[in-house]
Amino acid sequence: MAFRVMLRMQIKTGMEREFERVWLEVGDSVTSHPANLGQWLARAQDGVYFIVSDWVDEPRFREFEHSDRHLQHRQQLHPYRSEGSITTMHVVAYLRGQAQDVSHHEWEAAR
């Protein structure tokens, strides 16, 4: 099963849209890593965002975490955040949902 990383970030008031734009621009520095399975950006409320990324295993994530690539990625997002935290976990089970077969484009169109 995958290794999951969840970041909670408080974004400075008024910088939320710019943060989202930059996150999308620099995201390939994470998703292009051979051990990355994908990542998601979710907005809660009051400027709180969650970034979830899945990795093939913990050692490969830790390799990325200590790389220059990760440092550069963090530096590009750091100006937008006022605080944050990280939680890591091992995925122990996965149940595929019926909507899994719907493409991201179809999902966006339905919103």
From TrEMBL:
Signal sequence range: none
Q: Which residues form the ABM domain?
A: 3-89
| Record-given protein name | ABM domain-containing protein
In its UniProt entry, the species of origin is given as Actinoalloteichus hymeniacidonis
